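Researcher: Batch entry, complex prediction.
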Amino acid sequence: MPHVEHGGRHDGRDRVQHRAGLTAAVVLVSLLALPARSQVTAVSGAPLVVVPEPAAAKPPVPAPVPGAFQAPRPARGLIWKDVPDDAGRAVDLSWESSPDDGIQLVDGYYLMRSESPGGPWTLVDSVTARVATCRDQSTSLRRDVAYFYRVDAYGPGGVTPAGSVTGPAIASSQWFNHTRLSVLLLTMLFFAFVLFFIQSAQGEGKKPFLRRIPGIDAIEEAIGRATEMGRPVLYVPGVQDIEDMQTVQALIILESVAKTTARYETPIKVPVSYPIPFTIAQEMVKSGYVHAGRAEQYDPESVQFVSPEQFAYVAAITGVMMRDKPGAHIFLGAFFAESLLLAEAGHATGAIQVAGTANAGQLPFFVVACDYTLIGEELFAASAYLSGEPKLVGSLKGADLMKIAIILLVVVGCVIETFGQHGLTQWLATQ
Amino acid sequence: MKREIPLFVTAAVGLFMILSFFVPHQAVSVPADFLQQSAIIIVAFGIVLGGANLLRVNLEAVVRRQPGWTYKLVLIAGLVVTVALGLIEGRDFQAAGTRSTWIYDQVYSSMSSAMFALLAFFIASAAFRAFRIRTTEAALLAVAALIVMMGRVPLGGVLTAGLPHELRIETLAQWILDVPQNAANRAILIGAALGVMATGLRVILGIERSYLSGED
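Model: Structure tokens for the complex:
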């Protein structure tokens, strides 16, 4: 597990420590697709003179120019196949190209669909010459409805007078996506690890060992420093909405931070970028003050909604930094391009800065510009670390065990792949 | 009951959404889609709460003539004017030539781009601090950064053009990106992904319940 700590200017020297561990990614994609229903039916020889109904979203197909060229001979052997492991919203089609394909008589193929073998036909897609497969996943396709498909070759001489027809083709939904079996098994294994350690921590009633995380310890130090300076604490819970787990985690940690600021009687400012996290942040800060026994000191205006717009949010926060000069800046959550803008603006004010994110691309910016940085999973360990509750700490042990399992899987996968066996890789692959 | 019902709803919906990842059948996928769309609608209503807070806090600051109240006045004016124009222009407020579009293109986009452009200066100042060689680790960081930067510009290629392919600076730069950087990056991602799953499981099972507010 890589770990980077940046001891900042406050102790008079810069320290950058790198412990880089090598882990390979697990590619989760699989092969265990059930054989889908497939059927080859008729190849029609009857002449079909149909003007295709152009689908609105389809690219324009050049109009056939009759005259010097003859219409291409038809494609043959149209086959349909229900796309497996889906919700019944797609059908795969393949055919044998027209014998005229490749000699300038074929520009491409129209894929037509109808609810009866006699039409009327609707154009659902088109492909260029030398392509003999197509997937119908148009929004008009309904599951469990019998469709007939026809493929017409077209070229400078016009549309083929007879297309190959197949059907009835039915797109049906499945109860299990077999390509995700590996994900299901690994998820169940992970949940089992977590639940086991939670259970054993609960049974023993004592907190399992947890290594020291300097970044989390630094939060209290930062609040203490702000208190000594008589300045507020600025807490930024990221720029994502509540559906991002980093935002959830940042809001969970906010309660502990608010509890500490309440204990130290230091004001806290929490600018929030989305409305739902805003209401939750209000509750968390209030809860922190209540738990610290300082409910009367809670200021409802300490949490402010700013803007979901990324740079408007940044402008507002940097404004707070420059005007109010908070003594401590805590950036925890999901950050993107604004990470360095915030951290550098904060650095210019001389405040102690603690940051944490799981967005790997932003970590270098925080490491450089902040005094302490929580890297990836450390952010998710923070609530357990701060609360010290055995059940929460137990879940971290489960995650650690899963990491060992993944490392073993990666090593075994590398060895197997080296010997040319792809079974494990293919089983882990998902769609 | 004030806590039990939300915990039950969280657990039921959370487990159902996990199930929907593995079950594509319409009996599961349709309700799952509905729940996701409902979440979007609830979030849209939430913007009213946010807007109300924004107005209340800033109006109060203007009325009390707090420091920087003029900025807050500009914010309120901007908010009111933009919303009013959007309401007047109706459904087509985003069409070309509308006043809302003009505000977006000429005011918002320009200011947003200006904020983003500041990043160039901040990167320079941050890089200056990052590459000061004071420890062995900082030296390694600086050397790796130098190789990657030189490998990305034509000058680096010209300087090492006479060397075998394996020793050219662009090859070394690509190796640093593909092997050590990628390995560390993936390790962080795997750890973070497990952290996300563990947090999700704690929330679903009601072990992590501080988000329900602190009044036990």
